Amino acid sequence: MLEHLAARVLAPGEWLTESEVTGRIAQVSDDPVRLRRDLVEAGLLGRRADGSTYWRERQTVHDDEPGALPRPDDVWWP
Question: Domains in the chain, start-ordered, CATH in brackets?
Answer without folding.
Answer: 2-56 (1.10.10)
